[in-house]
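The protein record filed here:
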Amino acid sequence: MPWWCRALAGYALHAAGDYAAADSVFAIALTQMPAKERRDWTDVSVLLTEGWRGYRRAEGVERDSLERRFWWLADPLWMTPGNERRTEHFARHVMDRLQDRSRSADGTSWGFDLRELLLRYGYPVGWERERPSSPTMSMGSASMVGHYAPGGRQFIPPIRFVDTPTAIRSDEWNIKVRRARSEFALPYARWSDSLQHQLAAFRRGDSTVWVAAYTLAADTAVRGPVDAALVVAAHEHAQPVMARATGESAGALSIRVPPQPAVLSLELLTRGDSARAARVRYGIQPQPMPATGIALSDILLLAPADPLPRSLPEVVPVARGSTRVRSGERVGLYWEVYGLPPGTEAIDVSVTLNRDGRNWLRRAQSPIQLSWQERPGEGAVLGRSLLVTLPELPPGRYTLQVTVAPEGGQAATASRVVEVARPATPRTSASQAP
């Protein structure tokens, strides 16, 4: 069976960490294996948490398209070559054939139930024999407990994400799932769920510039340089556009792409004994310019700087790594105005901050209410930055809003939801402690 030799080679390459080569070899094996075997290996219904009936009804081109999009989204990191989640799936199929007509560590004959567990969670990395806990149970045989690789995550996307990837919301895809349907632990890095970020879009002619700032939480053990990537792809067949940088656990990246719906993936990876990996992945939907009137960019939160940056290239290095702020903190804001008519002599600008969930009367008592009038000057893009000091605020979600209105024209508004946390508590040294 030539295809089986290819499958064994793919298994070995996957185990060696060469996922791109394993992907290629497994693809050849799939073309060579009998149709029934190929359908069994490519079937992903055992991994799905929902919608598997609709998937099983799909045939031909529709089924192939679903599976390509499924594995595109299931790839843990687009910044690394190959798709280790897909090659892991095929490697588990190889392991299943190797276990055929054998017995498991606890003496159970290999069957469809153990096969399903293998495809969903992988092969155990070890076993533990549990002795009877009481004399009355000592007559029975000791039980065996299998242990799987720690740190597994459910990279498999829900079928609704596969149907419309660009509609995935930023807070919707959680891969750390209790009682996950399937799991996979990255062999080369421990997964971190503490990546914080903020994302903002800015118009540039027939393109959109996306700025993504990030930070790993302080409790994440990160040693050595951090490889960061901002990847945008319109669909599974499109060539992804990628911006990369190597630096610290906090930073910012920008990328220029066509203004179309796409999937964005912000990814971080460190190497070495304490390697960590993290990502956020969701759909992006650039807003078109209105037929008439002006438009605003997103609001980008900045670290306080003196002087304040005035253009987008100056802003990116000082972008805050999250939308989390603290009472009493100084926070910079940056936004852009587009479509001002030539000769506009004045614009009215207002900035407000309101707590979410309050009624209209309490919202009228905004903790931040700023307004002014200014001369915009000339140019297709008007960039503005502002430094504000937050008052003492109760913790919670707030909406920051910027409104710009040219004289005699229609106003445009941009909003940013921020999370206000309690002020940081100063640490007391041992010599100062009572």
Summary: The CA atoms of residues 176 and 362 lie 37 Å apart. The mean pLDDT is 89. The domain at 292-424 is CATH 2.60.40.3880 (Immunoglobulin-like).
